[in-house]
Amino acid sequence: MKSNKLGKGRFTAKAATAVIVGSVALGLTACSQTEAGYKNSAAISKADVLAAQKAWGDGIVAIGDVYEEGGDYAARASEHISSLYSYGKSEVLFKPTLASDQQFRDSFGGALSYFVGGEIEEDKGFAIKPWSKVRFGEQQIITDSDSAVAMGNYFFTPEGASDEVKVEFTFGYVRDEDGNLRINVHHSSLPHSG
């Protein structure tokens, strides 16, 4: 493995990755403990993260279903964001997949616009495409007593199609004051195609 010399020690790519991932986990822990003031001591497990991911994917499909049925899809998307994200409880770092002009969504309204269109001109409504299935695939999950981070691939199947769209993700989770898992980091991007 190629490494660079730093002072008298050696610095490897593996060590750099460990430092970055550790810093993210520490940052999520600090945010969950100080920014939000959460006191819930129940450790977040991998099973908790997987359940939160399933709820997120099912919610994206449900928003599209309500849209297709002519229902109040914006209300369904609001419910999705309110129940799964940490907006209004702590800061949220959200970088949606298809956002390019306004890449980061630090408000509830910005997230809602991304999912259903409206507030931000570039938004076409990611969740109202619609999708028939969202599947989380290969990933790594790091858990801490009161935070977790997951990174990997998730796959979206468009309604009426069989081919999946592969997307890369990073989600950060904290517990709220009621013990519910909340997303406080969500970064999503399409894989490099070059």
Textual characterization of the structure:
With 194 residues, the chain is an alpha+beta fold. Helix content is 35%, strand content 29%. The chain has four helices and seven strands. It has helices at residues 13-35, 46-68, 73-84, 108-116; strands spanning 3-6, 9-12, 93-95, 131-143, 147-158, 165-175, 181-189. It has a five-stranded mixed β-sheet. A two-stranded antiparallel ribbon has the order 1-2. Helix 3 crosses helix 4 (108-116). The protein is globular and about 40 Å long. The two termini are 25 Å apart. The model is unreliable at 1-38 (pLDDT under 50).
Low-confidence stretches: 1-38
- The average pLDDT score comes to 84
Helix content bin: 25-40%
| Rounded Rg | 18 Å
Major sheet: 5 strands, mixed
Work out the strand percent.
25-35%
Which strand order spans the largest sheet, edge to edge or round the barrel?
3-7-6-5-4
Order of helices and strands: EEHHHEHEEEE
* Number of DSSP helical runs: 4
Shape: globular
Number of distinct beta strands: 7
Question: What is the CA–CA distance across the termini?
Answer: 25 Å
Which structural class best describes the helix and strand composition? alpha+beta
Oligomer description:
single chain
Short description:
The protein has 194 residues and is α+β, with helices and mostly antiparallel strands. The protein contains four helices and seven strands.
Write the layout of secondary structure elements.
Layout lengths: L2 E4 L2 E4 H23 L10 H23 L4 H12 L8 E3 L12 H9 L14 E13 L3 E12 L6 E11 L5 E9 L5
Parallel strand pairs: 3-7
Antiparallel strand pairs: 1-2, 4-5, 5-6, 6-7
Helix pairs in contact: 2-3, 3-4
